[in-house]
Design a protein that fits this description.
flat, two-stranded antiparallel ribbon, 17 helices, 456 residues
């Protein structure tokens, strides 16, 4: 077989184009772009229809008669060196090609795709990666810089391979966007959320006819459309990343947040007492009179700052803390004197002790595993901690978990006759007279309290 091969540089034939430009060109050699890649190393990124056009040029002798002649001999070598089981599968796909597109290039491409891509184990691994991407996202796979461009290149490669396998899931777009939602950049998360909302609307319209759901999932054309939508949303996220990267730098986490807040309760933006620009850290904003570039410390500038501070209702001092009731920095109930930009607190304001409202979904569990502590929500609903359920529950606590399992909904700690009622919030006896102070530490049941109220 080797004796029939003429000394021909087959690299020209096996370095195939990467994309098809146009089929309307009068010169068929102008169909393709200038960039070419080796078929053996980049077959997974090469569309099959581009390779078919390239094989057609080889068959008609557009690259030279020696390539068409030697291509037939190479095809015979490939057939002879392929195992019978693999050859049977490849021949089924090869026979479906148009006669003018058959040759060593397309046959070699089908061999590579059957060996590496249509393996069920490989297809399942690609799907596992895509689902893991949706849960772990950008910070896990690209730690440090969270480079969206690198992530886009990886995702596109995986999606192209999944399309070749025919294993593109119905929720491919949602899985891709879910990974970008994990980004630490607030601008990327906000942009991705909009894309997710649009995709949800599209999915609702596509799933109106549930009888075609299976056909839509496995149909090759529908899978191609899903991959194209994935490419579209990935390009959109890349544009957002490039815009944010250019504006704020590579390590930006999105728009900077100032803990003081530069917007009042009425929605009015506060301004600098020195230059008059809106307070903030961005372009066209000022960080306040103390850090204002126009504040040179001269008496005239200081007088202007003082007058502007008096107009808005606060002194020119350094201000108090960040509490809700007190004034903010820049003139408040601190070293500066009068009310600042808070809600008009007095100069002698002192923060009282406070506690965050109890939320059974977010409040931490008690330190003691067997706790009898009763917590109440803002609407007065009682909750206790159950170690077995590992949550705050309005029905029972840890020692009464088994009883609750037996009685179900009938078991509630708000029942007056419930054995846990003595663990509720202590209520001092009513009408106890002088001995009430000594008795105030004792817990009372609801019946005792109601009886005390009803006593004439």
């Amino acid at each position: 077989m080797d004796r029939k091969l003429v000394a021909t540089d087959l690299g020209v034939m096996f370095n195939v184009p990467t994309k098809l430009l146009s089929e309307r060109s009068t010169n068929i050699c102008d169909w393709f772009g200038k960039q070419t890649k080796a078929l053996s190393q980049n077959w997974h990124n090469l569309p099959i229809f581009v390779l078919q056009r390239w094989q057609y040029l080889v068959n008609i002798g557009a690259l030279g008669p020696e390539y068409a002649r030697d291509g037939k001999l190479i095809l015979q070598c490939l057939i002879a060196s392929t195992s019978p089981a693999l050859l049977e599968v490849v021949n089924r796909r090869f026979d479906r090609l148009a006669p003018e597109c058959k040759g060593p290039l397309t046959f070699y491409y089908l061999i590579l795709s059957e060996m590496f891509m249509t393996n069920p184990a490989v297809a399942e691994e690609l799907l596992i990666f895509l689902r893991a991407w949706s849960k772990k996202g950008l910070p896990y796979y690209f730690k440090g810089d969270e480079n969206v461009l690198k992530a886009a290149k990886l995702l596109l490669s995986v999606l192209v391979r999944m399309l070749q396998v025919g294993n593109v899931p119905l929720d491919a777009v949602e899985l891709v966007l879910a990974g970008f939602m994990r980004a630490s950049n607030a601008a990327i998360r906000k942009h991705t959320r909009r894309l997710l909302d649009d995709e949800e609307v599209l999915q609702i319209s596509l799933s109106e006819n549930a009888s075609n759901l299976l056909a839509i999932t496995v149909n090759q054309t529908q899978q191609q459309e899903r991959v194209e939508r994935c490419k579209s949303v990935i390009d959109s996220v890349q544009n957002c990343y490039l815009h944010n990267h250019t504006k704020h730098g590579s390590k930006s986490k999105g728009e900077p947040r100032d803990p003081r807040g530069y917007v009042g309760r009425e929605g009015r933006r506060f301004t600098c007492d020195c230059c008059g620009l809106p307070l903030g850290r961005g372009d066209g904003e000022c960080r306040g009179s103390r850090n204002c570039p126009q504040n040179d410390g001269s008496p005239a500038v200081l007088e202007r700052i003082r007058k502007n501070a008096e107009k808005r209702g606060g002194g020119p001092g350094r201000g108090g803390g960040r509490g809700r009731g007190g004034a903010g920095r820049g003139g408040g109930a601190g070293r500066g004197g009068g009310a600042g930009r808070g809600n008009g607190a007095s100069p002698d304001y002192k923060r009282q002790q406070f506690q965050a409202a109890f939320n059974p979904k977010t409040s931490p569990k008690p330190k003691s595993k067997v706790s009898t502590k009763v917590m109440h929500t803002t609407d007065g609903k009682a909750h206790m901690w159950c170690q077995e359920c590992d949550k705050w529950t309005p029905t029972h606590n840890t020692p009464y978990h088994s009883e609750w399992k037996k009685e179900g909904k009938a078991f509630k700690i708000t029942d007056p006759k419930h054995p846990l009622v003595l663990s509720c919030t202590p209520c001092p006896p009513v009408g106890s007279g002088g001995d009430g102070a000594a008795e105030s530490k004792k817990k009372s049941s609801r019946d005792e309290v109601m009886a005390a109220f009803n006593t004439p």
